[in-house]
Amino acid sequence: MAVHYYRELLNFCARNLHDRDAAADLVQETYARFLGVLRNGQAVADPRALLYRTARNLITDQHRRSQARPCESLEDLPATERPVLPRSQQPDELCAFAQYASAMLAAIEGLPPRCREAFVLHRFDGLTQQQVAERMGISRNMVAQHVIRAVLVCKACDDRFHGRTR
């Protein structure tokens, strides 16, 4: 099995990287990817060859990364050159979105059950009002009323969350 190649692969990586600790990390990543291949049900005719090819690719990737960014740490870069996440991925934005989603979910969950069901079927499951009416055994006008009521509740929640008053 592939476990028999660990020491051999570690020595190979250490020779290429000139750093035994980095080599151990790389071999661990190699085995993780190897196990991923096995979990996906792919047949591996030659485990040793796959391990070495994976290790070589990881060494190449590591070398390319080191060439592309000579700094080891972002703190080494001047503040003006540090990469910045898009606003939508900033921690405060992610937290605000999670709070907004929770508030909106609470508003939807606070709807009467039939109203909530009609709204979810129409807006989230993508059913037409006619399909919702047929599924729920109610008229299309009643579905429209449920959806309008739910939209108004969601709009009020949005206004409260963003500090808008009516």
The fraction of residues assigned to DSSP E strands is under 5%
Largest sheet features: none
Detail the poorly predicted runs.
Answer: none
Radius of gyration: 28 Å
Average of pLDDT: 88
CATH third-level topology of the largest domain: Arc Repressor Mutant, subunit A
Q: What would you call the structural class?
A: mainly alpha
What order do the helices and strands come in, and which of them pair?
Blueprint: H1 6-17, H2 20-39, H3 47-68, H4 91-109, H5 113-124, H6 129-136, H7 140-161
Helix pairs in contact: 1-2, 1-3, 2-3, 4-7, 5-6, 5-7, 6-7
Characterization of this structure:
It is a single chain. This protein folds into two domains: 2-71; 88-161, Winged helix-like DNA-binding domain superfamily/Winged helix DNA-binding domain (Arc Repressor Mutant, subunit A), CATH 1.10.10.10. It is mainly α and 166 residues long. The chain is built from seven helices and no strands.
Short description:
By secondary structure, the protein is an all-alpha fold.
Structure keywords:
166 residues; mainly alpha; Arc Repressor Mutant, subunit A; 2 domains; elongated
